[in-house]
Amino acid sequence: MKELHIAQVSEKIINELPDGALLTVESNGKLNTMAIGWATLGRVWNKPILTVMVRFSRFTHDVIKNADSFTVSFSTEGKLKEIIAKCGSKSGRDIDKFKEYNLTPEYVEGIESPYIAEGDLHLVCKMVYKNTMEPELLSDEIKDRWYKDNDYHTIYYGEVVKVLKNE
Asked: Any stretches that span the bilayer, and where are they (predicted)?
């Protein structure tokens, strides 16, 4: 495993998001991973920050709301493409995705949430802020397109404390 600087992979991460990634979180004895295709990478509070969004209805929301960290694993070589699709169609309420899809959680010292070893690029993030969306502040265009069912997101801000690449 090689540690990189966020600037070395930021463009790759932004380009990979539409193909999906795995957001993994562990808290209070619960572990889950879910597919994501939306995130924001930037600089806030003079720190590299990755923001991810989790809908209220998702099992991951139950886990991440008390978490101190999260990870995002990418499949830049396409190895996880099928797994990402499966994780996006099944809920952690119903199955243990790690057992069902033979995923290996790998831990970084001092971080509760593991990354997915089968991925090849990982962002390890320490939670620094959470914000529940306020529907009245959204544009009608966004509300009408993405929130017809009123299933809004909480936005989680994670300081990227490690960037790891499988060699």
From this structure: none
